[in-house]
Write a structure and sequence with these properties.
The protein is 62% helix and 10% strand. By secondary structure, the protein is mostly helical. It has 2 domains: 2-229, Cation efflux protein transmembrane domain (Alpha-lytic protease prodomain-like); 236-303, 2-Layer Sandwich (Alpha-Beta Plaits), CATH 3.30.70. The protein has a 3-stranded mixed sheet with strand order 1-2-3. The radius of gyration is 25 Å and the shape is elongated.
Amino acid sequence: MQHDELAPWRHEHGFGADVHGHGEQRTKWVVAITLAMMVAEIAGGLLFGSMALLAEGWHMGTHAAAIGIALFAYAYARKHAGDPRYSFGTGKVGALGGFASAIGLLAVVLFVLYESLVRLGSPVRIRFDEAIAVAAVGLAVNVTCALLLREPGHEHGHDHDDGAHRDHNLRAAYLHVLADALTAVLALAALVAGKILGWAWMDPAMGVVGSLVIARWSYGLLRDTAAVLLDAEVDEGRIAAIRQAIENDGEGRVADLHVWRVGPRHLAAIVSVVASEPREPAHYRGRLAEMPDLAHVTIEVSRRG
């Protein structure tokens, strides 16, 4: 009975995490393609005695595991979207998955950089024909996966509102694929130069270049996801707009304001309003009605003494 009486004042806290979205579906396809490629390369390496194919196959396995983090984050967020233990829902699970993937990318950077520097000092014999074939197939697979994971409007790493409404989980998976594609392009260039010109040093040199580029991508992902996790992502302009909407007619002043992200497309806000003749909280909440992404708003009203 109590639940029915309070129903008009209750609302869900899924904030989009309970929806089986396109990002999750595309990530599933990418994991399936990557696992199929891994099995084919490992089988080919064992069958034909190719260390290059075998190594690339296990590399694809680590790649699938990294993207699997993103897939797990989607599933976990959806499964626990209604769990009351999560005060503001599971909208940040995607950012947490992106942060974990960024750490994984940095681990890959350190490994590639170390191996490249070692090979610059101690060159190894390269089977160019076989290695070129593996790199070409890997590049084709990664380009396909990148097209599946690319977010519309985010092709160059920017969007129309400085990162708002961005699926950081999908972005993390996309950067893993993009990093693999970059290493494949650099490897192809280096291997062709090594085969035709005899520049064997190009292979480890390109490894160093690739690791530095991937490190830059990883840093950007770490910075953006950490801002979401630490409630520091919402820009000052957006906060000022909320304050202005409340104070527009001069009836009240905003004494305290907290705004943070609870999902890729949802914000929460706590607003403390002080006025000589205070109105009902619903009055001030109505002034924010034109901001649909403010999904969870708490208004506190106090009378000025």
